[in-house]
From TrEMBL:
GO cellular component terms, A-Z: plasma membrane
Gene3D superfamilies given in the database record: HUPs
Residue ranges occupied by any DUF218 domain in the UniProt entry: 22-90
Listed name of the protein: DUF218 domain-containing protein
Chain segments annotated as coiled-coil in the UniProt record: none
Length: 183
C-alpha cells in the first residue's frame, strides 16, 4: 500500500478499519517499529499533503525547533530530483535568512530503487510529470527571497494549503489513468 500524508489533491486519504486517516509518517513509523526501531528516535510529520509540504513542515516543525543541521531525505528514484530541489531551496532559504549561511543544513539524499514500484508506462509518465513539476518549482523558488515569501506562497497559492483553493480538493485534475495510478 502506498501512503500520501493525509491524502493528496488527486486521491483521498487512506483510512484504517475505524475510519481514521493513515498518515504516511504513521505507516512508515509502524514499518520501522515492526522491525525493531526505537520509538524514542522516531518523529512524525502529519501536516503535509504532498512533497512541498514534506519539505516545508519538516523544516518548520522539526529541523528549526530541534536545531538539526544534518538530515537525510529519503524517497524513490523517480521522485528524488523534484524532492531534492524542494528541500534544497527551502532549507537554503532558512539557512540564509535565519543564520546567514545558506549551507547551514547538510542534507543527504537517499533514493530507493523504482524497481517494481509501477508498471513501466506508469513510471515513465510519472517521471515526466515529476520533471515538469520540478521545473515549475524552480521558477517559483527563484522568486522567493524570504521565509515570509515562502509562507505566503504556500498558504495563498498552493492547492494543498491555500484556503482560497480548498474547494478544489477532490476535483479530479489528472485525466490520464496511468498518471493517476502513480499516486
Amino acid at each position: 500500500m502506498d501512503y500520501h500524508g493525509g491524502g493528496t489533491p488527486h486521491k483521498g486519504p487512506y483510512l484504517d478499519a475505524r475510519g481514521f486517516v493513515v498518515h504516511e509518517s504513521t505507516a512508515c513509523a509502524r514499518y520501522l517499529l515492526d522491525r525493531g526501531a526505537d520509538p524514542e528516535l522516531l518523529l512524525k510529520e502529519v501536516s503535509s499533503y504532498d512533497t512541498v509540504g514534506n519539505a516545508y513542515f519538516s523544516l518548520t516543525i522539526h529541523a528549526l525547533p530541534a536545531g538539526w543541521r544534518r538530515l537525510a531525505v529519503v524517497t524513490s528514484d523517480f521522485h528524488m530530483p523534484r524532492t531534492a530541489a524542494l528541500f534544497r531551496a527551502m532549507y537554503r532559504l532558512a539557512g540564509r535568512e535565519l543564520f546567514g549561511d545558506a549551507d547551514r543544513f547538510d542534507l543527504m539524499y537517499v533514493a530507493a530503487s523504482d524497481e517494481g514500484i509501477f508498471e513501466p508506462p506508469v513510471l515513465e509518465i510519472r517521471k515526466s510529470k515529476e520533471a515538469a513539476s520540478r521545473d515549475a518549482w524552480l521558477r517559483t523558488a527563484a522568486g522567493l527571497g524570504s521565509l515570509r515569501d515562502l509562507h505566503t506562497w504556500l498558504h495563498q497559492t498552493h492547492l494543498c494549503y491555500a484556503v482560497s483553493r480548498q474547494h478544489e480538493f477532490g476535483v479530479q485534475t489528472i485525466q490520464d489513468p496511468k498518471l493517476l495510478a502513480s499516486y
